[in-house]
Structures are given as structure tokens and as C-alpha cells.
Amino acid sequence: MEMEKKYKLIALDVDGTLLNDDHELTAGTAETIRRIAAQGTEFVLCTGRAPVNSIPFMREMGLGGYVITHNGAATVDVQTEEIVHEFALDAKGLDRYMDYCREHNVHYDINTTFVLYVPGASQLSKEALDMYHLFMMEPQDLPDWASFKEPIVKMTVTAKKDELDRIQSDWNGWTQEFNVLRSGDFFIDIMHKEASKGAALKKLAEKRGFQPEEVMAIGNYYNDLTMLTYAGLGIAMDNSPLEVKAAANAVTASNNEEGVKQALEKYCLGQSVR
């Protein structure tokens, strides 16, 4: 059937999309992905996570290829862990955001592609450490800028939803040299102006020789908008905000109802039914 090979690259968001609310990849979803990968389709995880806590899901599914991490700021080879592309940012520009966080007692971290730094990491509360451990991250103590050997790709601010709404409102009044992005109810990410999931996915598709119409993307939040609109088929989860659903070509079930599995069965495996 001529439609069988239509989607050559499938980009999946991780939290709120691929994983359920218990941060689990279900056996059914993993099995469906393996079946489609066996037909020659490439998968890429496209996530706000770092390589250290996204590559394991690819390996669990037996997949090679790439992960697009830090919301598009760094693309990494799953097998070699080599950085394929980075959007490095000007660290000194982060000082005003860090000053704001210190003044308002807001938690933040600074990320290179592979390492996460927190001011006073050794004095972190159990609650903060538990959050990082849930995401398989071990924070290091934040040194001064001159001590960094690797490019910085992201600053993340973490707070309760209403507090983040207030921070976002304050920062919206600033002249921005960065992409300041709400990546979850409890997270704001600050990245290079050009860094986004869509920009990184476009670069990867071009590198692999794929047209946008050969790319499918599935996501659930505002940070997924750029990849949903870039892809030939952008699918929003049922647990997405209304604006994300409106920007997508289709909506699947929620992340707690194996929405990724259902979408893949409908648009990939359904094509190959004789």
C-alpha cells in the first residue's frame, strides 16, 4: 500500500505524552513503537528533559537514532551520546533572571547538555531533591560562569502554578534576548532565542533527508506547539490545553489512556492493514 511509508520520522514528547502521570512507559505503548520501528520508521524523543533521563526510554524500546532534549536546545545521538547540535546561550544574559529568582526566593537550575547545576546543591531540601530524583537527575553545585567548560543550553525555573503565572507576567514585560517558554504547569525554561522543539526537529529531518509531510509529532503542552505545527501531522493529547489542541491536526486520547499508542495504531499500523 503506497501510504505505508508516509511517516518516516515520528517525534514524541515524553512527560504528559509518552509517559502516563506516574512517569511510566506502558508495555503496550512500547510494543506498538517497536512494531512501527521494525517497519523502518525512525523515532525521536522531543523533550524538555536532558539526555540522561530521556535516552534510557529509547534504549528500553531498543531504539537508536536521536533524542531532542532541553526543549530543542540539544540533539544527542542515542548510541554514542555524541552531541549532534546545540543552541548555546550567552550565560551572562541569565544574570537578571537569576537575580530575580534570588530576590523572590524562586528555585532555578542551570543546564549544560549533560549536567544540571543548582546553587547550593548540597543544601537542597528533600522536596527539591525528590523532584530531581523523580526525573533521574543528580544536581551539581553551580560554579561561576568562568568555570564552565561546556556551553549552557537552558535555565529552568520551578514553582507552583500561580507563582509561575506571576513570574511569567513579570518577565513578559522585559526585553527578551532568549526564548522564555512555559514548558509545564510548574516549569519555565529560558533558552537561546532560536531554540525550540520545532527548530531542532526541522534540523534533524533535513539531516535525515525527510520532508515535513513525512514527519509526525505528538505532544501535549505549549512547548510542543512548534513541532506540532512543523510536522506534516501534528497530534495533541487529550490532556493538552485548548490552544495546543487547536494548533494540532488531530487529537488522540490522554497520556493515561495510551493516547500515543492509539494515535500510532491509527496513523501508522492502520496504513499497513491489507
From TrEMBL:
GO CC list: cytosol
Domain of life according to the entry: Bacteria
UniProt-listed SUPFAM superfamilies: HAD-like
CDD domains: HAD_Pase
GO molecular function, one term: phosphatase activity
PROSITE patterns given in the database record: COF_1
Pfam family, one: Hydrolase_3
NCBIfam families: Cof-subfamily (TIGR00099), HAD-SF-IIB (TIGR01484)
Name of the featured protein: HAD family phosphatase
Organism: Paenibacillus faecis
